[in-house]
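FORM 12-B: Structure-to-Sequence Request
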């Protein structure tokens, strides 16, 4: 039986171990059972699953995961939490605790070791200071993933889910949506954590696409074009791409690529869909023959 997930028990554990919260690790522990159930439900955690939990803290969500999954691997950077986790998870034989920085770990190897290389689920109440590197790292490194269901800052969840032409739409929306379908499962107020964060939070599920939704010959070039378009949000797409330091296409090549999309020459990058950015990249990679030319 999960015993954590409420304020009393959390405070009791913290006092027993005289645990000192470390701001640099983004430590805000969940104390609301309904939110925990919502996360497990959104991730669809089932008995055959291997779940990677990033930052188990005192093991609150880990207990819920252990009860619902076949195997849980929990990676925690703060060595002061390890003796606590050993106590709170002592009743479970399907949990492996690793004291490491998630950004330094070979997660692909973990998926092989614990799940024969089959797709894993990633569930976490993420440390907000490294949300984007963790999520993009998981997608880009080719870890076999079913879905990533995580608590993040509310604004970040909105940016991941945003579509073309909205104020939240940007490079993060396109990067995430190239790999996955986002779905915001819950908004979570600061009073569901100890200590309370200064920002609102949201649970977002990112269900990995079996194949990318667009066919793009040079994804690196596509993401360079995306970054250049959003770096200068107020400029037209043409000017944004002309001014970009990393791109060396001529004005004529850029104009022709934009025209090939069938959009107005004065279009802004923020109105383009993922498939249009793919079209732009495919046109320009063909144009230059070897990537970039001036
Ligand atoms: N899962 C717990 C909960 O919901 O109560 C704790 C969540 S807290 C927001 C984030 C956790 O991630 C903390 O326990 C923190 O120490 C850990 N953490 C921070 N940076 C990390 C990193 N680079 N690698 C692994 N864990 C990290």
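FORM 12-B RESPONSE
SEQUENCE OUT:
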């Amino acid at each position: 039986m999960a015993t954590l997930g409420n304020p009393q028990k959390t405070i009791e554990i913290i006092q027993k171990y005289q645990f000192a919260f470390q701001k640099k690790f983004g430590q805000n522990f969940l104390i609301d059972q309904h939110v925990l159930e919502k996360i497990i439900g959104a991730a669809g955690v089932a008995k055959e699953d291997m779940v990677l939990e990033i930052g188990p803290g005192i093991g609150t969500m880990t207990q819920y995961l252990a009860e619902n999954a076949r195997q849980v691997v929990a990676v925690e950077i703060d060595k002061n939490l390890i003796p606590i986790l050993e106590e709170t998870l002592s009743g479970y034989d399907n949990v492996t605790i690793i004291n490491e920085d998630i950004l330094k770990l070979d997660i692909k190897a973990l998926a092989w070791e614990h799940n024969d290389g089959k797709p894993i689920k990633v569930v976490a109440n993420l440390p907000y200071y490294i949300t984007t590197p963790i999520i993009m790292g998981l997608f880009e490194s080719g870890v076999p993933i079913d879905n990533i269901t995580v608590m993040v800052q509310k604004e970040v969840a909105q940016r991941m889910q945003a579509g073309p032409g909205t104020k939240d739409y940007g490079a993060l929306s396109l990067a995430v949506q190239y790999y996955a379908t986002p779905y915001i499962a819950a908004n979570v107020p600061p009073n569901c954590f100890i200590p309370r964060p200064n920002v609102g939070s949201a649970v977002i599920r990112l269900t990995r696409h079996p194949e990318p939704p667009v066919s793009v010959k040079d994804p690196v070039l596509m993401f360079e074009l995306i970054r250049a378009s959003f770096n200068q949000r107020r400029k037209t797409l043409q000017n944004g791409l002309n001014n970009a330091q990393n791109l060396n296409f001529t004005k004529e090549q850029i104009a022709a690529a934009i025209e090939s999309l069938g959009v107005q020459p004065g279009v802004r990058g923020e109105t383009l869909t993922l498939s249009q950015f793919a079209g732009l990249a495919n046109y320009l990679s063909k144009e230059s023959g070897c990537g970039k030319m001036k």
